[in-house]
Structure formats: structure tokens, C-alpha cells
Specification:
Keywords: Membrane, Transmembrane, Transmembrane helix. It is built from 18 helices and 2 strands. The protein is mainly α.
Length: 555
């Protein structure tokens, strides 16, 4: 017979009373002053996202499907008595509970906007689709995360289970510890699949509500559209994070060692992917609801809405897309690092670093394609950039290229003279690989950078943005590409310097070069170049009165 836990009931009742009191005050009693309405709406959208993030943790289900091995079980304890029921290892409440909580929070957030105060209702005839309020880069990223999780769950359904292995000593002098078991994969796959399906269906339902709900009378048409985009942004980010969490739970199940395995440890790569998705979604900025009196909303091109200009607004949308590159670059770097780890047999530790650099450059190229497809006008020429990147970046590229040429020449001379080891790079191949592999890596980085820069330079001008803003976005993109190429070259240079054979001088008083320290300096420079910040877009980049003052920058 089930008993009542009065402590839990009291706590839940108090929480429910607080929520009801807040909703009454929020929807009935409180009414924001007209001059504070926009700040009130911004805070409402922000706290909806914060509360949803706080309720989205799936940590309680990280060992779902795993049967723990009893540490004290021995021959006198039957295995059936020591191992729980397989279904008891799958906490359905910890899997589905956060999904329902997040969806309910976003649902209440959309239903609790301030009610109209005006006695007259204005009918707005407009056809709104869900995809009209989804940022393209975020939409494709979230779709990729959901497909990855769905594929992982489908693969999990065919994974076999294995029993718990108790501690024992098969022969004298040997001993092995207990090993956790796991339930059949279809059991955990059913629970994860149901949770993922509820998350996907609920996310789409809330997105449809965001697109179809009434517009707020305190905002104009552009602000209402931005508010819907903000709601979609926060909902999709948390949904992608939870979907990747389901994949991480499946990955923790899949890496469990079998009883006959000789391995002593395993790595859950899906959990690392989940961390990358979490970081990306956490730093993916939602659009900002501009005030009607902001500088970007004024100008000779003002159109729909009070003080709004389609020209400036679209340019700012493109700028926000360019500012969200970190959300795509971080997962690309993680995936590139994993792919480069498969090449460590031939490239050594340089493999993950170089391949991650190439993936970052390809991501920049892809974002430029996305920018061209969504915001550029085909055939519209752009102004020539006379100062595309600053001179310090030029200097860094020249120093890295010259240092790499000198280092490769020294390596070639040392190998032809028989100095150092006769084995090849990372112990594979012949001595010639000490030049071939670093040169190939440097050329691949340069080719990826050239491809990304070509996408930036060939992009038509933004048809609905100030020319100065278009030029600023190109310079920022070229700066990102240039610093990434310089970082890749310094990485290769550091790897080459570290393997240079150091022939000691016969004179003990002569200075002895510390090549290991020099290589470490190159690696530090590579890391510094990769994270060197790019200048943010300021109002001076798109205000009409700044067009003349920025003429010297656009050439």
C-alpha cells in the first residue's frame, strides 16, 4: 500500500501556491506602465528561458539501462537477488519529466503575455508560418542534433545486453573486480525514443503556438516578429540540448564494457558532443528587440512600423547571423578534433589540431553561403575593400609562413645529412615524411582558408543594409579566416620545431637553442590567434551619417 510522504506533499503544495500567486499577480494584478512595456516584455522572455534551462537537467538518468554490480556480492549471494529488475534501471520520470517541464514553461510563457488593455482591438491580416521565425543557422543545427540523437537511439535498439560480472579470482594470484551489466538495448531505446518523440512533438506544438498567437499591442510589427524569433530561439536551443543529452545517455550505455572485454576504460564521445552542443546553445545569442527610437530604426529608408526601416533591420539581422558564428564553430571544432584523432597514427597530435582548424574554416565558408542565400541580392555589386584585414594579421601570416619555410628547410637538411632518427613523422614512413606531412597540412589549411575567403569576396552586397555595414561584415569575416589560417600555420610550425634535431655546439659556452620551448611558444601563439577577438559591429557601421566618414575604409 502506498503511503503519503507529508514532507514532499507540503513542499509541492507550497511551490504550487507560489506559482498560482505569481500567475495571479502577473496576469491580473500587475500591469506594466506603457513606458516600461518593452523592458517588461524583454524580461518576461528572458526569465522564461532561464526557468526552462533550470528544469532541463537529465543528470538523474545518466546511468539509465545500466545494472550496477553489487560490490559485496559473493558466491553465497544469488545473482538474481543482487541485480535489480531491468526496468527499474530506466528512470522514466528522470527522462520524460524534464521534457514536460521545459515544454510547460515555454507554453506558459507564451500564454502569459500581457493582455490587451485597449477597448478597441485591431485586426491584423497576416499569414505567419513557423519557419518564418526560425533563424536558418539555428534551425539546421537543431535539426542535425535531433537526427543524430534519433540515429543513436535507433542503433541502440539493436544493442545486446549483458549480465553483471561479480568479482572473482579465476586462478591463484589473479583477481578481477565487479563489472556493471546492461539491459537489452530495446528497453532503453524504447524509453529514449518515447522521450525524444515527446520532445520533438512538443517543441513543434509550442513553435506553432508562438507563430499563431496574437501580436502584442505594445509592440509594432517588426518588434512582434523579433519577439517570436526570440521565443523560437530559446525553445530550439533548449530542445537541442536535451536531445543531445538523450544521445549522451545512449552513449554511456553503449560504452559499457562486456564481460569478456580486455579493455580497462572507455570514452563516451557522445557525451563530449553533448558538452559541445550545450556550450554552443548556451552562447547562441537570441535577437534583441530594438526600441522604436533606436538609431537603427531611423533613417531615410524607414518603412513599416513607427521609425522602422527594412534596410537597417535586415542589415542587423545579417550582422546577428555573423555574430553567432561561435555557435557553429565550436561543434565543428569538436567534430574536427574527433576526425583528426583517427589520423593520429600518421599525423600524431598535430592531426586533431589541423583537422579542427580545417573544419572551422569550412564552417566560415558555409556561414558565408548561408548569409548570401538569405540576405544578399544576386548581381548587386559591392564596394572594393582596400583594407580587408589589419596589418598585424598580415604580419602574423607572413611570420608563420616564413618560419614554416625555414623550419622545413632545416628539417630537410638535417634528414639528408643523416641527423636524428631514421623513422618518419610520428614513427611511420621514411625521413621524407618530416617535410611532406607538415607541408601537406599547411597547404590544406591554406586551401580551406582560400575557399572561405573566396566565399566572402564573391558574395553579392546585402540588398537591404547600409554599404558601410556590408563592408564591416566582410572585414570581420576575413579577419576570422585570416586568424584561423595563421593559427593553423603556427600549430604546424610548432610541431616541426619540436622535431628538429638539435646538434649541440662543441663550445660549452655557446648558447644552446631550446627548440622545445620555441615550439611551445609557437603553439601558444596558435591558441592566441585562434581566440583573438574580432571587433563588434557598432552603430557607426550602419548609420546613414556614417557613410561619408567610413568612405576611407571602403575605398
Amino acid at each position: 500500500m502506498l503511503g503519503i510522504n507529508w514532507a514532499e506533499a507540503l513542499i509541492l503544495g507550497a511551490v504550487g501556491a507560489i506559482i498560482i500567486a505569481y500567475l495571479y499577480l502577473r496576469l491580473v494584478k500587475w500591469g506594466p506602465r506603457p513606458e516600461r512595456a518593452l523592458d517588461h516584455i524583454r524580461n518576461h522572455a528572458l526569465w522564461t528561458g532561464i526557468i526552462a534551462w533550470a528544469l532541463s537537467s537529465e543528470a538523474a538518468a545518466n546511468r539509465a539501462g545500466i545494472m550496477p554490480a553489487p560490490q559485496s556480492a559473493g558466491p553465497s549471494i544469488p545473482l538474481d537477488a543482487a541485480v535489480p529488475n531491468p526496468w527499474d534501471t530506466i528512470p522514466l520520470a528522470a527522462l520524460i519529466g524534464p521534457v514536460v517541464a521545459v515544454l510547460v514553461v515555454h507554453l506558459l510563457g507564451q500564454l502569459s503575455w500581457p493582455a490587451p488593455k485597449s477597448p478597441k482591438r485591431v485586426a491584423v491580416l497576416e499569414y505567419r508560418r513557423v519557419r518564418d521565425f526560425i533563424e536558418p543557422a539555428l534551425g539546421w543545427t537543431v535539426l542535425g542534433v535531433f537526427l543524430l540523437s534519433a540515429g543513436t537511439v535507433a542503433y541502440l535498439a539493436f544493442a545486446p545486453g549483458h549480465p553483471v560480472r561479480l568479482a572473482g579470482s579465476p586462478t591463484e594470484g589473479t583477481w578481477y573486480g565487479p563489472l556493471d551489466g546492461r539491459v537489452p538495448g530495446w528497453m532503453l531505446g524504447t524509453a529514449l525514443g518515447a522521450s525524444l518523440a515527446i520532445l520533438a512533438a512538443g517543441t513543434f506544438a509550442v513553435m506553432a503556438l508562438i507563430a499563431s498567437r496574437r501580436s502584442l499591442e505594445a509592440l509594432d510589427s517588426v518588434q512582434n516578429k523579433t519577439l517570436r524569433t526570440v521565443g523560437m530561439n530559446r525553445l530550439l536551443r533548449i530542445s537541442a540540448t536535451m536531445a543531445s543529452g538523450f544521445a549522451a545517455i545512449a552513449g554511456n550505455y553503449l560504452v559499457q564494457l562486456a564481460p569478456g572485454s580486455t579493455a580497462t576504460s572507455s570514452v563516451n564521445w557522445l557525451a563530449l558532443t553533448n558538452l559541445a552542443v550545450l556550450a554552443s546553445m548556451l552562447f547562441w545569442k537570441p535577437p534583441f528587440i530594438e526600441d522604436v527610437a533606436s538609431p537603427a530604426a531611423s533613417g531615410p529608408h524607414a518603412g513599416h512600423g513607427p521609425g522602422r526601416g527594412a534596410l537597417a533591420n535586415t542589415g542587423l539581422d545579417a550582422a546577428r547571423l555573423a555574430d553567432s558564428t561561435i555557435a557553429a564553430v565550436v561543434p565543428a571544432a569538436v567534430v574536427g578534433g574527433f576526425a583528426g584523432a583517427l589520423l593520429m597514427t600518421w599525423l600524431g597530435w598535430m592531426g586533431p589540431a589541423v583537422v579542427a582548424t580545417v573544419f572551422i574554416l569550412l564552417t566560415y565558408a558555409g556561414l558565408e553561403v548561408l548569409l548570401r542565400r538569405n540576405y544578399a541580392t544576386p548581381g548587386l555589386p559591392h564596394k572594393h575593400l582596400s583594407k580587408s584585414i589589419p596589418w598585424p594579421l598580415y604580419a602574423a601570416l607572413i611570420i608563420a609562413a616564413a618560419g614554416l619555410a625555414i623550419a622545413l628547410n632545416q628539417v630537410w637538411r638535417a634528414r639528408t645529412e643523416g641527423l636524428g632518427t631514421s623513422a618518419g613523422w610520428n614513427g611511420t614512413g621514411g625521413p621524407a615524411t618530416f617535410c611532406d606531412i607538415p607541408l601537406l597540412c599547411a597547404l590544406v589549411v591554406a586551401a580551406a582558408g582560400a575557399l572561405a575567403a573566396w566565399q566572402v569576396l564573391r558574395r553579392p552586397a546585402l540588398g537591404k543594409a547600409w554599404p558601410a555595414l556590408d563592408g564591416a561584415l566582410r572585414r570581420r569575416a576575413l579577419f576570422r579566416i585570416g586568424r584561423t589560417v595563421a593559427s593553423g600555420w603556427f600549430t604546424v610550425l610548432g610541431a616541426v620545431v619540436m622535431v628538429l634535431p638539435n646538434e649541440a655546439d662543441s663550445n660549452p659556452l655557446a648558447p644552446q637553442p631550446n627548440l622545445a620551448a620555441l615550439g611551445a611558444v609557437c603553439i601558444a601563439l596558435a591558441a592566441l590567434m585562434l581566440v583573438f577577438p574580432v571587433r563588434a559591429v557598432s552603430p557607426a557601421d550602419f548609420l546613414p551619417e556614417s557613410a561619408e566618414t567610413s568612405a576611407d575604409l571602403d575605398g
